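Anyone opening a protein record will find just a pair of labelled lines. A complete record is shown below as an example:
=====
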Amino acid sequence: MADAVTSQTIIDGEKKVVMKFTNVSDGSGESAVAKVDVSALAKNTAGSACTGVAIEQIWWQCIGMKVNILWDASSDVLAMQLGENQSGHHDYTSFGGITNNASSPTGDVNFTTVGHSSADTYAIILYMRKEY
């Protein structure tokens, strides 16, 4: 078995991308699973491919588990951890968003669940600025 997960792209525009992710765990969890693949995002009007994102806002709810949001790289770097049995909205736009500080980054974003067990859930919406 595997966790029942969904990924939905709500907006993939010139400058912004909004994506929603859900998980209903069967207890197996996720480990550094690619959630935002920047190579799959729309190019800008000049034809340039997206090379990374900055997280500007997050809406989230985690029931029974934590979620680590990771910058994908040769050694993944923790962008933030969303707490167990918590929900919230974080807005980082006043300082330009959380940018990738990994060494040799791919530009992608991964999720790892922590402390997951059967029937635990998360729902996460990421509002991101595209980088070229």
The mean pLDDT is 97. The first strand starts at residue 4 and ends at 12. Strands lie at 4-12, 16-24, 33-36, 52-63, 66-73, 77-82, 86-91, 105-114, 121-131.
